[in-house]
Amino acid sequence: MAEYPFASIGDALHLIALLAIFVFIAVAAFVLLALAALPGQIAARRSHPQTAAVNVCGWLGLPTGGFWIAALVWAYWNYDRPEPDSGVLSAQITRLEEVVRGLEQQRPSGSQPARNRGTV
């Protein structure tokens, strides 16, 4: 066997290397599990309407990869569609009704609205 400078602590180096490998595997597993759960956590934090589905898609993305990207995009998808303000709509309707009444009053009495006289 070849001599090297740390030959006297060779058994300890083997144990340190083995421990480093186990630590690396544990950290890698923790990172993978945290990444798999990330889309579901983001969806829950954003009160996404399909949080459970995003979470499942994120976990399925752990072995596939493609589903994980889809779940991440889905978690950030904005479902907040502003509803029209009924006050603004009613004000516009009132204004348009007033315009129609004004136009009807300008029309000479007894005349009929113009009809399309084209061929059918």
Write structural notes for this entry.
With 120 residues, the protein is mainly α. The chain has a domain at 12-78. Helices cover 68% and strands 0% of the residues. It contains four helices and no strands. It has helices at 10-45, 51-64, 66-76, 86-106. Helix 1 (10-45) runs antiparallel to helix 2 (51-64), helix 1 (10-45) crosses helix 3 (66-76) and helix 2 packs antiparallel against helix 3 (66-76). The longest helix has 36 residues, at 10-45. The radius of gyration is 35 Å and the shape is rod-shaped. The model has no long low-confidence stretch (mean pLDDT 84). Pfam families: DUF3302 (PF11742). Keywords: Membrane, Transmembrane, Transmembrane helix. The chain crosses the membrane at residues 12-40, 52-77. InterPro entries: UCP028770. This is Inner membrane protein YiaW.
